[in-house]
Design a protein that fits this description.
The chain has 2 helices and 2 strands. It is mainly alpha-helical and 84 residues long.
């Protein structure tokens, strides 16, 4: 199911520290348009431990929505202990 090249996506944040959903959607579309084989939201790019559980789930949901079945999504499952 997961073959080829997958991108561990960075998580874009707004100036106030909130998830920038619009930029995330553009990043996902850009990766798909460039021919990536699968997406890895909340992968090992470093910010996963700083996300709340709700943010983690939202990021994965956005990746699934934007991929719309065009490429598989391999959700990162790193430590998602909620930040304080």
């Amino acid at each position: 199911m997961f073959t080829g090249c997958g991108t561990a996506l960075v998580t874009p944040f707004s100036g106030d520290g909130s998830l920038d959903e619009g930029v995330l959607r553009k990043l996902i579309r850009r990766q798909i348009d460039a021919g990536i084989d699968f997406l890895v939201p909340c992968g090992t790019t470093g910010e996963s431990p700083t996300l709340t559980h709700e943010e983690h789930l939202r990021i994965v949901a956005i990746a699934i929505e934007e991929s719309a079945g065009r490429v598989p999504v391999l959700a990162g499952a790193a430590d998602i202990t909620p930040r304080k």
